[in-house]
Design goal:
Layout lengths: L2 H25 L5 H8 L18 E5 L11 E4 L5 E5 L4 E7 L6 E10 L4 H4 L2 E2 L6 E10 L5 E9 L6 E6 L2 E6 L4 E6 L4 E7 L18 E6 L5 E5 L4 E6 L3 E2 L5 E2 L11 E6 L7 E6 L4 E8 L2 E8 L7 E6 L5 E5 L4 E5 L5 E6 L3 E6 L12 H4 L6 H4 L8 H20 L6 H24 L2 H9 L1
Parallel strand pairs: 6-8
Antiparallel strand pairs: 1-2, 1-26, 2-3, 4-5, 5-7, 7-8, 9-10, 10-11, 11-12, 13-14, 14-15, 15-16, 15-17, 18-19, 19-20, 20-21, 22-23, 23-24, 24-25
C-alpha cells in the first residue's frame, strides 16, 4: 500500500477514534444538578422529586462558570431528602454564600455579572481603574423556602465581582474587595466605609499577580477574637489582621511561590483553640487538594491532606460537626462530603461549583473541629514533615503546568470535559492539523509555496 494512503488511513482512524471518544464522554457526562433543580423549582415542593442523595440538613451551592460558557451561574439548594429547594440564575456568577442568620434557611450571598464593555447605566457608578469593562455586584439575602429576596447592597467595580462578604451585624458587612486589593467594613445603612486595610500597605508590590489582578483577595473571615483572616490568592498566603494594628506577620500561612504550602488557595476557614486550633482548613486550589494546617510553637504544620484522581481546582472546604468535610470541587464538577476516615459518603454533580454550605451547621467551619482535636491531639507526622521550600527550575514548571495551566484550560472548556477529555481533544487537534498540512503539501500547493519562498 502506498505510504501516503497508509498515513491517511492512520490519521483518519485517530480522528474518528478521538471524536468518538469525546462524543461518548459528552453523552455520558453526569447530569448537572443545577439544571435538574431549575426544571423542578417551578413546581410545588410536594411535587418535586429527589435529584441528589438525602443528607442531614439542606445544602446550598453557588456556581461560577467561566466567561464564554453557555448558561449563567446559579445559586441552588437541595433539601435534606434530595429534592430541589431553590434555584436562581439572575446573575452571571455566584460566589460566597452564608446562612443568615445561622441555623436558618435564609442565606446571604454575593453575586454579579461582568461586562467587557461597561453599560452606560453603570458608568457613573464604577469604582476602580477599569478601562472599558466593569462588574456589577449584588449582595442579597434570600429565604430558600419562600424565595423572598432582600437586596442588601449593590456596587459597580472596575473589573471583578467581590468574592466574599461576611455579616458583622444588622448594618455592617466585612468585604473582600478583589477589584481594589483591599478589605473593608461597610455600613449598609449609610454606605460608609468604617474600616479598611489595603494590601499595598504591607506587601511587596513585586509580589503576586499583574497590575489589575495583584492580590486576587478572595476570602475574608471575622474571627471570634476580633481579628480578620484574609486569603491573598496571588501571594499564595493566608494572612491575619488586627484592626487598628495591621498585618500580624508571625501568623502568616504560606509564602510567595512556596507551592508545597499553598498554591493560589481559596476560602480558608479558621478553627480556634476551643475547637482544637489554632488551625486553618483551606482549598489548596492549584495543588488540587484540600489541606489543614495547625499552628504549633509559631510554625504552621500540615496535619491533614485529601485528594483523589478527580479532584481539580477545589475552592471550598468546610469542616462539619462530627468531623465530616464538605468539599467544593470546581473542575471536578461536584460537591462531596468526606467522612472522618476520608471516604466519600455523599456527592452531587454540578457544573463549576464555587462554594457549598450545609445548613444547620452554622457558617462554613464554625462548628467543626481540627484534625488534631478529632485525633485526640495527635499530629500526622508524615504530613508534618512536608517540604516548605519554594519551587525553582523544573519543579516550578511542573507545578505551573499541573496547576494553573491545566486548571485554566478546564475552566474555559465545556463543563462536561475532564482532564482525560482534554488529552483526547489535544490528540484530535494534532491529528487534524497534521492531516491538513499533509493534504496541502501533497496537493502540490505546498511545493509551489516552498518554491515561491525560495
Amino acid at each position: 500500500m502506498e505510504r501516503r494512503t497508509i498515513l491517511r488511513v492512520l490519521l483518519l482512524a485517530v480522528l474518528v477514534g478521538s471524536a468518538g471518544t469525546l462524543a461518548i464522554a459528552w453523552v455520558n457526562a453526569p447530569t448537572n444538578a443545577t439544571a435538574a433543580a431549575a426544571n423542578q423549582t417551578q413546581l410545588p415542593l410536594a411535587d418535586r422529586t429527589p435529584v441528589v442523595e438525602n443528607r442531614d440538613g439542606a445544602t446550598v451551592i453557588t456556581t461560577d462558570p467561566p466567561a464564554g460558557n453557555d448558561g449563567l451561574g446559579a445559586i441552588v439548594a437541595f433539601s435534606a431528602d434530595g429534592r430541589p429547594l431553590y434555584h436562581n440564575d439572575t446573575y452571571g456568577n455566584y460566589f460566597d454564600v452564608d446562612p443568615d442568620p445561622p441555623g436558618s434557611k435564609t442565606v446571604l450571598y454575593v453575586a454579579g455579572s461582568r461586562y467587557d464593555q461597561c453599560p452606560d447605566r453603570l458608568q457613573a457608578e464604577t469604582e476602580g481603574a477599569g478601562d472599558d469593562g466593569c462588574a456589577e455586584v449584588a449582595v442579597e439575602r434570600v429565604n430558600l423556602t419562600t424565595g423572598t429576596t432582600e437586596r442588601i447592597h449593590t456596587a459597580v467595580t472596575g473589573w471583578d465581582i467581590w468574592h466574599d462578604v461576611d455579616r458583622i451585624d444588622d448594618h455592617r458587612l466585612l468585604v473582600a474587595d478583589i477589584a481594589r486589593d483591599r478589605v473593608f467594613t461597610l455600613n449598609t445603612t449609610t454606605d460608609e466605609v468604617t474600616w479598611e486595610w489595603r494590601a499595598e500597605a504591607a506587601l511587596d508590590p513585586d509580589s503576586g499577580g499583574q497590575p489589575g489582578d495583584w492580590t486576587h483577595v478572595n476570602d475574608i473571615e471575622l474571627l471570634g477574637d476580633g481579628r480578620v483572616m484574609v486569603s491573598l490568592r496571588n501571594q499564595d498566603r493566608v494572612v491575619f489582621l488586627e484592626p487598628g494594628e495591621g498585618l500580624q506577620r508571625d501568623w502568616t500561612l504560606g509564602a510567595e511561590d512556596a507551592y508545597e504550602i499553598l498554591y493560589e488557595q481559596h476560602n480558608p476557614d479558621y478553627l480556634p483553640p476551643a475547637r482544637g486550633g489554632p488551625a486553618v482548613i483551606v482549598s489548596d486550589s492549584e495543588n488540587n487538594r484540600v489541606v489543614e494546617y495547625q499552628l504549633e510553637n509559631g510554625t504552621w504544620t500540615r496535619t491533614w491532606e485529601w485528594r483523589d484522581e478527580r479532584l481539580r481546582w477545589p475552592r471550598d472546604a468546610d469542616r462539619l460537626p462530627g468531623g465530616h468535610t464538605l468539599v467544593t470541587d470546581s473542575q471536578g464538577d461536584r460537591v462531596i462530603e468526606l467522612s472522618e476516615t476520608d471516604e466519600i459518603v455523599w456527592s452531587v454533580d454540578i457544573a463549576t461549583p464555587y462554594e457549598a454550605e450545609r445548613l444547620g451547621t452554622r457558617d462554613e467551619s464554625a462548628t467543626g473541629r481540627s484534625t488534631a482535636a478529632l485525633a485526640n491531639g495527635s499530629i500526622d507526622e508524615t504530613a508534618a514533615g512536608a517540604d516548605r521550600t519554594s519551587k525553582t527550575g523544573l519543579s516550578w514548571l511542573v507545578a505551573f503546568i499541573a496547576g494553573p495551566v491545566v486548571n485554566g484550560v478546564l475552566h474555559a472548556a465545556p463543563a462536561w470535559m475532564t482532564i482525560g477529555d482534554l488529552a483526547v481533544a489535544g490528540v484530535f487537534g494534532i491529528a487534524a492539523v497534521t492531516a491538513g498540512v499533509l493534504e496541502v503539501y501533497w496537493s502540490g500547493i505546498g511545493h509551489r509555496l516552498l518554491n515561491w519562498a525560495r
